[in-house]
């Protein structure tokens, strides 16, 4: 469904992604794990068209995404849940969700997807008229995911959805990730919480200073000495 081939990204002289190749098949949950500054966010931003690669190609369902604009990439079926729950703080919950559907004109479909988001996140339905900036951290994360789903993506890119959440909420969010996938959305998830990420994903990649250093079925990575020592606390 998605394939990246030999992607190089630079920020000035900083070589942030070094020949990164990666693929995601339809229906999968794939995770990319790595330490702070390894290049995880840069990778998602490159797929979304927010960062331009210097070399390499990105393909999605037969289309070349490499030089496409972010809004075209959303229209092709890729939504991004950014890190740090970036919701529009002054807009209400409902307005934030509507922003997620801004490229769509199918009113009935939009309404159906709103209901789907409320079924996943009943909390949001109770807070529809509340400014998003007044939601708790966990609720803002739910809203950021809900907003991305309102574009009806085929592929959902998730940037550290568990960051800063209490353990019980982390469990909830990972349960929701499974449910979204079971409903037919393919997911590429980046995480520092390697334990949870390897639990939910079928396959995984490990990135270190801009380079993919390991890849394979999650179960195999979980057994790897290197992953255990560096990412699972020994
Ligand atoms: P974290 O988990 O801390 O968010 P990350 O794995 O997502 O880290 P990135 O945010 O992709 O890492 O950053 C990769 C590298 O690129 C880092 O060295 C970072 O300092 C650098 N970098 C990221 N964004 C920029 C930018 N806009 N300008 C310059 N350097 C940047």
Automatic annotation (TrEMBL):
The keyword Cytoplasm does not apply. Keywords: Amino-acid transport, ATP-binding, Nucleotide-binding, Transport. GO terms for biological process: L-amino acid transport. It holds the Pfam family ABC_tran. The keyword RNA-binding does not apply. It comes from the Bacteria. Residues 2-234 form the ABC transporter domain. SUPFAM superfamilies: P-loop containing nucleoside triphosphate hydrolases. One of its GO terms (molecular function) is ATP hydrolysis activity. Belongs to the ABC transporter superfamily. This is ABC transporter ATP-binding protein.
């Amino acid at each position: 469904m998605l394939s990246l081939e030999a992607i190089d990204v630079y920020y000035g002289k900083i070589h942030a992604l070094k020949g990164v190749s990666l693929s995601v098949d339809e229906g999968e949950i794939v995770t990319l794990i790595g330490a702070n500054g390894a290049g995880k966010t840069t990778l998602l931003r490159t797929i979304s068209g927010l960062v331009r690669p210097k070399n390499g190609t990105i393909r999605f369902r037969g289309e070349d995404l490499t030089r496409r604009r972010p809004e075209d990439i959303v229209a092709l079926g890729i939504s991004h849940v950014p890190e740090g729950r970036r919701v529009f703080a002054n807009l209400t919950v409902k307005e934030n969700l509507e922003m997620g559907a801004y490229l769509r004109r199918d009113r009935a479909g939009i309404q159906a997807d709103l209901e789907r988001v409320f079924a996943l996140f009943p909390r949001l339905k109770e807070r529809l008229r509340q400014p998003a900036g007044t939601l708790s951290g966990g609720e803002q994360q739910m809203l950021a995911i809900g907003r991305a789903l309102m574009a009806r993506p085929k592929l959902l890119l998730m940037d550290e959805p568990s960051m800063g959440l209490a353990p019980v909420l982390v469990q909830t969010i990972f349960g929701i990730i499974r449910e979204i996938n079971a409903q037919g959305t393919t997911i590429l998830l980046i995480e520092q919480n390697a334990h949870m990420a390897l639990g939910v994903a079928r396959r995984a990649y490990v990135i270190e200073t801009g380079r993919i250093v390991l890849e394979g079925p999650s179960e195999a990575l979980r057994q790897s000495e290197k992953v255990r020592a560096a990412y699972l606390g020994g």
